[in-house]
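#onboarding

Welcome to the new folks! Below is a worked example of what a typical request in this channel looks like: someone posts a single protein sequence, and someone else replies with the predicted structure as tokens. Don't worry about understanding the tokens yet, we'll cover that in week two.

Example request:
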Amino acid sequence: MAGMDPLRDRFSPQVVYLDTATYGLPADSVMAAMEEGLQRWQAGIATMDEYDAAVDTSRRLFAEIVSSEPEAVAVANQVSVFVGMVAASLPDGARVVAPEANFTSLLFPLLVHADRGVTVKTVDLDELADSIDADTDLVAFSLVQSADGSVADVDAIEEAARRHGAKMLVDATQAAGWLPLEAGRFDYLVAGAYKWLLCPRGTAFMTVSDAAIHDIHPLLANWYAGDDPWQSIYGPPLRLARSARRFDVSPGWLAWVGTAPALEVIASAGVESIHRHDVTLADSLRDRLSLDGHGSAIVSIPLSDGSVLTERGIAAAVRAGSVRVGFHLYNDATDVEALVSAVESIGGN
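Example response:
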């Protein structure tokens, strides 16, 4: 735990911040980069080269964090953009299996294709692997559930999907940054970067396997998805990148200026170390409050009203009828103590 102390000093929360599952906090380097970026924009001296460099660095670092390669990574602004590309590329009548309680940025882009016969069967998360059969074209799920932090049984789901020839679309928004990942296990992995990756809101990633890259129609084809973007700004013919960059969405510049240094923080700390830190704190809380389940950085506490936490300077969220908290780089054992004290004061354990 002490190994994270220097990193903790790079953040400046004014509360006991336990709400990373809603949004992560910026490190000092992120604030400095974005402030400089604003100043350069205001002065009229910002350049396209520096913005492109921020995107390139972010792509490389995300690939490192999820054990992939930069050529397999596409960039956009939101997860639903990527899910929509995958959904639109499914054949008419395709059959999808997904968890019932999954966050809707994964479900809605699939459900809107009901008019062409795409069906989405939703089941309990622990039934997902057993629900995959020979008629399943795609299994779509979050590695970590937003509502309560439940971690999917990836091994069982992957085995069933491969056995039945189904592709896998995985949302790592609540996992990337604290849970060690191997993106290459999946056909498509998507992640919003503003939570556990501690980036500004407005940046997202998708990894695509070599076997699946030609199964997605690049419906949002644009100049930035070109083989050489600055030579793709006028006129035909279509000349998209051969790599996953063909799925890129033109970047919102300043968000990427902050994304690159944020990912440097995660990569330098190492996801394995972050995982140990975050889960140790979360499991300590579970033990103190006699809560079931271990192994997730997110904890669901059976309290329907989080106002007592707010009154005590603790930032958390209420999701699916319970208080949701999460532990990350800026947290330590004193935050566990503060939360336990607040919960016990209302008999919430």
